[in-house]
């Protein structure tokens, strides 16, 4: 199961992603692919963030939060929430510190 944890839209904003969806064979897992695309988008487009990815767990620490970053994080969180509703055995989303 992929576990995504996002704190509120404040600074510092921390996002943690770990696990694997296990909804299909390796390389064919559409749920894992969806979360990976969302993560890649965050990594690429956040204006000021530190990203640590060891292949098993991702930590994103957002240092500044402009209006574009807020929209990007809202879209990320909303889409992960939709995935968690559609695939509750494969994705969870939690928020808080």
TrEMBL record:
<keyword id="KW-0378">Hydrolase</keyword>
<keyword id="KW-0645">Protease</keyword>
<comment type="similarity">
    <text>Belongs to the Prp family.</text>
</comment>
<dbReference type="GO" id="GO:0006508">
    <property type="term" value="P:proteolysis"/>
</dbReference>
<dbReference type="InterPro" id="IPR036764">
    <property type="entry name" value="Peptidase_Prp_sf"/>
</dbReference>
<keyword id="KW-0690">Ribosome biogenesis</keyword>
<dbReference type="GO" id="GO:0008233">
    <property type="term" value="F:peptidase activity"/>
</dbReference>
<dbReference type="InterPro" id="IPR007422">
    <property type="entry name" value="Peptidase_Prp"/>
</dbReference>
<dbReference type="Pfam" id="PF04327">
    <property type="entry name" value="Peptidase_Prp"/>
</dbReference>
<keyword id="KW-0788">Thiol protease</keyword>
<protein>
    <recommendedName>
        <fullName>Ribosomal processing cysteine protease Prp</fullName>
    </recommendedName>
</protein>
């Amino acid at each position: 199961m992929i576990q995504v944890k996002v704190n509120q839209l404040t600074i510092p904003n921390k996002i943690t992603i770990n696990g694997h969806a296990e909804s299909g064979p390796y390389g064919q897992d559409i749920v894992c692919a969806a979360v990976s695309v969302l993560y890649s988008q965050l990594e690429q487009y956040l204006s000021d963030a530190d990203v640590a990815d060891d292949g098993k767990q991702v930590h994103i620490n957002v240092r500044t939060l402009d209006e574009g970053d807020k929209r990007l994080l809202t879209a990320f969180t909303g889409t992960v929430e939709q995935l968690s509703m559609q695939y509750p055995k494969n994705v969870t989303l939690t928020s808080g510190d």
